[in-house]
Amino acid sequence: MKIIITGSTGMIGEGVLLECLANPAIESVLSVSRKGSGKTHPKLKEYIVKDFLTLPENDANLRGYDAIFFCAGVSSVGMDEATYYRQTYETTIQFAKAVGANNTISFMYVSGGGTDSTEKGRMHWARVKGKTENDLAKMGFKQSFGYRIGMVEACAGQVHVLPYYKYLSWIITICKVLAPNIVCTMKEIADSMIYLTENGFERSTIFVKDIHQLSKKIS
User: 0.70 exceeded by the pTM?
Assistant: First the structure.
């Protein structure tokens, strides 16, 4: 299996990248990011793109892959609505056009818990994420999935971990027992994406409980 991963210098992207590099089901990984991941591995190639909006449609560098694990993203905190829309919706859709949607490629889009599929809710970020999921589904990929992740436990070797996560380790431990459907691991995310690439699923929206179940099918 050949995979494209975006956002490898962010927490989710880096974790998924490390887990994919360790998984024997993955033949090769192309990391597409605004800067180098800082990782070296026989399976890994990098494509540095300063601005995803500059990617041409049907980019030859993105051909020949089985799936996109789109983990790039920004926080809406402190960002005006126009900028957030551009950096979330427009960059994702332009990336999809650069890949060249067809029925042989699966697209996994990491959105987040609270994403609004109706595009009509009160929270701007949730509407934008919902629109992104909805429009990806219309683009002609083999399948597209919106990943509604919650709290995520980092994997070994991660460098790009959100600073406040070091204060949440005890909360994550408690939630794994009392509220398991809001917490998953990086390995579970990566494994579930790998499973979906090969096998698909009856729903396009993937929740934490689905991640748990799907990841077990290849563990």
Answer: yes
